[in-house]
Amino acid sequence: METTTKTCHHQALTELFDGLVREIGRDALARLPIEKLAHCGTQGSRLKSSRPNWKASRRRVGGVLEMTIGAVFAAAFAISVYAQEFLAGSGTPAAAFPNPDRPVADIISPIWHDEKERDDAGEPRQLVRLLGIKSGMTVADIGAGSGYYVVRLSPIVGPRGRVVAEDVVPEYLQNLRNRVRDRGLQNVVIGRGEPHDPRLPADSLDIAILVHMYHEIAQPYGLLYNLVPALKSGARVGIVDAYGPTAEHGTPPDLLRCELAAIGYRRISLDRLSGSNAYLAVFVPPSVASRTRPEAMVACKAR
Questions:
Q1: For residues 26-50, b (16+ Cβ closer than 10 Å) or e, as one string?
Q2: What are 3-16's pLDDT values in tens digits?
């Protein structure tokens, strides 16, 4: 019976560790202080060689196994706090929407230039001020890429707020998970969307930002239509892009306004950002009921 129980414990531990390795990676697992428990287990095994203490030793070994299992679960829970992930239901399918009547730029990089260069231009500071981002808000970074805005918005929204990082590229999301985990950002959640659907939780967002990526959206009408249910009453959508054609990784402001108006969004401000050839356009979204129905949408032509 004792051998069977120990074998069962050993198999359980093996499966737990294997699962943890798959979930968080060997590098992260190597940083956990499990080796202290393993040392305790070695001491417990030596104690078992003493016949008078055999029962006490067995209890110790069993206790160490329970402690190790508990430590694995605790570690898995603690790590899962960072870079939590969400799964929202699917919205209206892509086939229901018109395709954009203009070039769609390739997704060439998760990083827009060098981060220091971007900081020096003061882009995040301007975006936060113009959108009124503050503590306690929930902000979605759609097309989060490397997480440039995610790590900068996290301390601004604070422990009562949340940053929702969304992207469609799996490799970008994995790198972002690692970055968020390494920084210990507990107010960040991560999710994979689709080109026509960000798949964000309903009625969850105060602000959504799309930064230097609108020209890369293959299904802008679908994405913006399916974004609406996630926006709270009074929410705002901020889009940062460069002045220039979409084929050259920019979006003309008039074309942007036309494409969003086709869904029912209303532009309320347009500001040129200092330090770069970019602007921030801020939109008020329609209600779920007042959105233009997909079959009634007409794609805007680039001039």
A1: eebbeebebeebeebbeebeeeeee
A2: 554 455 445 544 54
Mean pLDDT of 191-200: 96
Q: Tell me the mean pLDDT in the region 27-56.
A: 41
The CA-based angle 212-144-209, given to 5 degrees, is 60
pLDDT at 302: 83
The pLDDT value given to residue 107: 80
- In whole angstroms, what is the distance from residue 137 CA to residue 187 CA? 11
CA separation for the pair 104, 220 (Å, rounded): 10
Name the residue among 245, 216, 263 with its Cα closest to residue 303.
245
Please, which residues bridge with residue 208 across strands? Answer: 140, 237
Tokens of 125: 């500071």
Longest CA pairwise span in the chain (Å): 90
Mean pLDDT of 113-123: 83
* Lookup: tokens for 43: 């001491």
User: Is residue 50 predicted with pLDDT exceeding 50?
Assistant: no
DSSP secondary structure letters along 228-279: GGGEEEEEEEEEEEESS-GGGT---HHHHHHHHHTTT-EEEEEEEETTTTEE
Per the CB < 8 A criterion, the answer to whether 243 and 270 are in contact is no
Contact of 156 with 124, CB cutoff 8 Å: no
H/E stretch holding 230 reads none
Q: Which fold has domain 84-296?
A: Rossmann fold (3.40.50)
Q: Across the strands, what pairs with 66?
A: none
Contacts (Cβ under 8 Å, ≥6 apart) of 36: none
Q: Which residues contact 135 (CB under 8 A, 6 or more apart)?
A: 156, 157, 158, 160, 161
Helix (H) or strand (E) holding 151: helix 148-157
Report pLDDT digits (tens) over 59-86. 554 554 455 445 444 444 444 444 566 6
Strands 278-284 and 266-273: antiparallel
pTM of the predicted model, to two decimals?
0.74
Domain boundaries, the chain: 2-81, 84-296
